[in-house]
Amino acid sequence: MEVPGNEIRIKSKAIQDRIKVTGKESAKTGATGGSSGAKGTQGSEHIALSSQAKDIQKAHEAVKSSPDIRVDKVERIKTEIAEGRFHVDSHELAEKILKDTIAESKFLC
């Protein structure tokens, strides 16, 4: 008998692969030991992160901890705009956007 909403966490790589190949129902019976009712054994798995993945994780944590708005910079720019001193060099801006886009595309590949 199946209880709705009672999903089994499947840790074994072999069982996960079976889910991909045969579908959900046969994998559940494989995970629980079939119709015999015997409980399946669960092995422990270890995950090793590459140094690049660790760097991404650190960067993500740094972004999460930093404020969304840098109030000091916003205030400085507001003052410069009000005084007519704020100028954006369109060529410099376009160059930075292109460099960032290229760097991101290399990073993601």
Question: Strands, helices and their partners?
Answer:
Layout lengths: L12 H10 L1 H9 L18 H15 L5 H13 L6 H19 L1
Helix pairs in contact: 1-2
Low-confidence stretches: 24-38
Mean pLDDT: 74
Instruction: Quickly count the helices.
Output: 5
- How much beta, percentage-wise? under 5%
Q: Report the structural category.
A: mainly alpha
How would you characterize the largest beta sheet?
none
Q: How far do the termini sit from each other?
A: 46 Å
Helix fraction? 55-70%
What would you say this structure looks like, in words?
The chain is mostly helical. It folds into two domains: 38 residues, no CATH class; 41 residues. The protein is 61% helix and 0% strand. It has five helices and no strands. The longest helix is centred in the last third of the chain and has 19 residues. It is elongated and about 70 Å long. About 14% of the residues have low confidence.
Give a quick rundown of the structure.
The protein has helices spanning about 15-20, 25-30, 50-65, 70-85, 90-109. It has about 110 residues and is an all-alpha fold. It has two domains: about 1-40, no CATH class; about 70-109.
Notable features of this structure?
109 residues; mainly alpha; 61% helix; elongated
